[in-house]
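In response to reviewer comment 3 from the previous cycle, which asked for concrete evidence that the modeling workflow produces usable outputs, we include below a single protein chain processed end to end. The sequence was submitted unchanged, and the resulting structure tokens are shown without manual editing.
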Amino acid sequence: AEQALTEAMSISQSTDNLVTTLYALDNLARLQVEQGYLHRATNFHYQALQAVEKWTKEQGHPGLYLPNSGLAYLGLAEIQREWNELAAARQSVNTVLELGQQWHIQDTVQAGYITLARILQAQGDLTGAFKAIHQAEQAAHKLSPYTAWMSAVKARLHLAEGNLLAAVHWARTCDLPLDDSFN
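The workflow returned the following structure tokens.
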């Protein structure tokens, strides 16, 4: 996968296809996260932001954020949260939310609020975390790719507050298999 994504990134860069470059870099970063290489993932996110900065300067609009920039900032926020760099994570997720709202991209807004909930939980602010999850639910649409993630984060918040009934309800209704089988 890494080889194919690296090739896709190279081809898209050589043809000045910024959108495909950003998606390739985002997927490369996600792959690194899955393998536990957070520093490498961070480098891919920064490469994406540099590509956007270069493109906007070339277009005569320096400082312009593009919708796809949200992917890089979201990835950075998640890594910064993992590293307990919570102030930096809040700044990154605020940028995600601004981009999603500015460009009217509900998936970006929803993902931003889910990540914000995780950051607030790490800061010990369960009330704020539940508020962020509620905002994520408001931003969600029927075919959202983030619904399961949002639901799992909400269940974790219920566990953190000691609300076992809500967490058990989630476990019974989440449609996840209860065995260890991957069939």
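The mean pLDDT is 91. We consider this sufficient to address the reviewer's concern, and the full set will be provided in the supplementary archive.
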